[in-house]
Amino acid sequence: MDLSGDTATYSYDAVGNLLGISRHNSSQVSVIEFSPNSGTVGTTVTIYGTGFSAAPSQNAVTFSGVPTTVISSTATQIVATVPSGATTGPIGVTAPPGSAASSAPFIVTSTSSNGRPTITNFAPTIGTLGTAVIVNGTNFDTTPGKNDLRFNAGRGVISSSTGTSIFTTVPPGTGSGRISVTTALGKGISNGDFFIPPSSYTTSDIEFTGRLAGNGTPLNLAINTSNKKGLIVFDGTAGQRISLRVTNSTFPWPCPWCINVNLQFYRPDGLAWVSTSWTNSSSAFFESPLLPVSGTYTILFDPQAGNTGQATLALYDISGEAQGTLTSGSPVTASVSIPGQNISFVFTGTAGQRVSLTVTDANFTIPCAWCQSAFVYIIKPDGQVLAQGTWANGTGTFIDTQTLPVSGTYTVRLDPTDANTGRATITLYNLPPDDQGAITVLGPPVTVTTTMPGQRARLTFTGTPGQRVSIGATNMTIPRATIAIYDPNSTLLASGSVMSSESDRYVVSTLLSSNGTYSILVDPDSTGIGSMTLRADVVSLSETPISIARGVTVTATWNGVALPIGDWIGLFVPGGTTSQAVQFTGSTASGSMLFTIPATVTPGTYELRFHSSNYSVLVAISDTFTVTGP
pTM of the predicted model, to two decimals? Predict the structure, then answer.
């Protein structure tokens, strides 16, 4: 409304073109516009104009001469419904200042047909930028500007139109896909696709065209002429992920490292997006990143080196991967039925919490001799990978103890390789603290137990400088484990491994250098669980006499050996690593034996070392003694 009280009306067509400007005296009745422009009997219509009464009862409204009830009104707006018996025609309004009717008709539609456009066919079916195209159908608007025609994502320029034909050209900034026409009465979409070669190609370069559904329906492709290409379209949604599987390919490769076929993906606006290829194979598989926009995408199928052949393509929607929640100790089955699909589970974690994960009973195949069957990831709340596991030619994997760095929602993702499908059982474990009490040096044995894969067991003991403490394992049901000794500062001093089949032996030994609380950590291998009994011993070793000639026998005496499996005594130069002589002790817990000093050793200072546990664990060192010449 301007200063003189007139109302200015700007008129636009369906596609936004300004048609004109008109002025209306606000004191006179006028019908300027109404919305919607069409509808069935009973449709609520808002009428815009001037000179209306704010009292609904003082306004009379008709649709093609049929009166109706006014629901509400203001000086510039009336709300009414389409009355029974109304047909297509103008809307009339009578108010105290006078009467007026709309210049455009309100179109009354039936419930069976609303007059929306339909597309029967178009010609040609392939073309480059600027190619003239005729679109045939029904219910087109005879005014060209009132038809919104699009080639996939791009709006076409219409030169003329009738109720059954539209004449247009291929616009820039679009890719292959369906043609659509929108009028004031609705939208019609073609069943077939119009194919637009990428900018560096012509229609003569294209031999094959086709469409892929996202449900794995196979599409058989054939390129029978050298240097020809194929165009394949598929529909996608922003944020979606798709996978593409190529099988039964007969396209040859000219050399072992040469590419068979290159696949270039194009966005709905015709811009290049991602590409992939395969070499020396009759099959290929591709998983996409997230689709950037919604619309119809195009794949350029480009055989290399002039190759010809056939192939079968299948496209899959692999967007949905969420399966549920993981609870500690409760196995869940992850089933992958779509090539490229990932399966994800979530769990809530707390900073400092420790977890482990097992994958068992997996039946995914191996796509090649050097390939993995699948990967499994633990993903932090920020999307970064905390840990991962994989396997090949097996039925699962294990992710050992992981300490969660932050609190939040973590994701466990199972990602089969290539086009693998199958199932696996996933189990998450919230691990308890390691501490299981204390053990006394030269005291009674202590049994530790683990019940979850990844769980460890820690015992502490008080040590003094100069003690050589040896840790023995008995009654072991854990299949295999590592036993380590840590000093009061948690620094690793020594470690050794043991299997249940060879337990009842010393596993690790170390010389203590300070007073304090030391710890013994039992860490089962892989998913092993069970129990073992530990003991902490101090073994003494002495020899007599303290000076002896070469070739003479000394007496070696030991005490405190509780687990005498494969024990032996060796003659060493102090600080040396190579024994000058070795003699087995048998399996005597405590005792003495005659040890002969070889006549070939060099005179000097020596010591005896007592070893246990299949010759690998040093449990005692004697004082030094002198070997003299004969």
Answer: 0.71
